[in-house]
Amino acid sequence: MTMEEGKFGVQEAVSLVATAISFKVFFTSPSLAADLVGNNIWYMTLISASTAILGFTFIYLLLRRFPDQDITAIFSETLGKPIGFICSAFLCLYLFYAASSSITEFTEVMRDYIYLLTPSSIIIGIFVVAVMTLCLLGLESIARLARFLIFPMLFGVLLVLVLGFKNFHINRLFPILGHGTLKTLTNGITRSSAYGEIVILAVVAPSLQGIAFVKKAGYTSLILSGLFISMLLLTFALTYPYYVAREITSLMYGMATLIDYGRFLQRVEPLFLFVWFLSPLIGISGVFYCFISVYCKMFKISDSRPIVVGSSIVLFAVCLFQSDLGAIASATIQSIRNFGWIPAFALPILALVIGGLRKKGTKYHV
User: Fold this and answer.
1) What are the beta bridge partners of residue 2?
2) What is the pLDDT of residues 91-108, one digit of tens each?
3) Is 95:291 a contact under the CB 8 Å cutoff?
4) Phi and psi at residue 266, to the nearest 5°
5) b/e map of 130-150 (b: 16 or more CB within 10 Å)?
6) HSE on the CB side for 202, CA within 13 Å?
7) Which residues pair with residue 260 across a beta bridge?
8) Domains in the chain: ranges and CATH
9) Which residues face 266 on adjacent strands?
10) How far apart are CA 267 and CA 103, in angstroms?
11) What is the average pLDDT score of the chain?
12) Residue of 20, 7, 277 lying closest to 130 (CA atoms)
């Protein structure tokens, strides 16, 4: 297997990136955000999305300056091979730990709600094997699977929201400013890393059909993800007081358990489990594939099959270690949310500035 990533269109790219961004809202992120900013999590994420859109604008300008190149090659050309290698390695580590922390988070939530007696190693092992299989099939297969499943998954989420409507209480949105405007703004900007998976487009840019497709896929993914996540967080805020929300591991699953329309319609959590399993599988597979891609390009490895298998074993070990130490897992997730904007947005901005000063790339390419 080589690192030829195939070709796919805007719809596949949007489905993959939006899924990779959005699935985190099903796990612990909303409760962690509620602990930070109270009941205004729903518009804090709009600040994060707006910041991410600004960050992607610089990524787009960088890719436009270097058409038909991925972010690894651009780092090398703009920053020089030694510094470019270091920046690529930093991005590579970010992608790996984003994948590992998401698997750990998924495992802990599954053990809390469904497989209470199942060892973490079993859940992690099955999930890692599934991710490895998708990565061996290639990026194009992952993107097309995301395109195929995006609407069924969206339907499952919307159905849960509609059925949970009777549990909404508008008074739970007040005070509307939550813990303060400044705190909301600061956390919103910092946690723009929640949308950091947009860097997937920079890693696989040659697989898209030109820079115009990258631009359309990037902005569409961020706008749709921001609105979708904000809608979900709004429903969480309407369903739970913030001081209750911050104690619940998965607000989405908890909201599904509250649905009760008498003896003929209750316990509808299985409707959501379809989304709960598949969305992280697609999103994490996309992120992990990008880690493999960056790693192989750094070391000029053409056959990625051994790297996929070997990295999957390392991924399993790291996830197993984190699952045994919950404090480490929580710290990893929090650090990614707080500092993930550095590899996702700051490094491309640095490459854009240095490339402009050194007059690298095509200045007016459209």
Assistant:
1) 303
2) 999 999 999 999 988 988
3) yes
4) -155, 165
5) ebbebbbebbbbbbbbbbebb
6) 34
7) 266
8) 10-357 (1.20.1740.10)
9) 260
10) 26
11) 89
12) 277
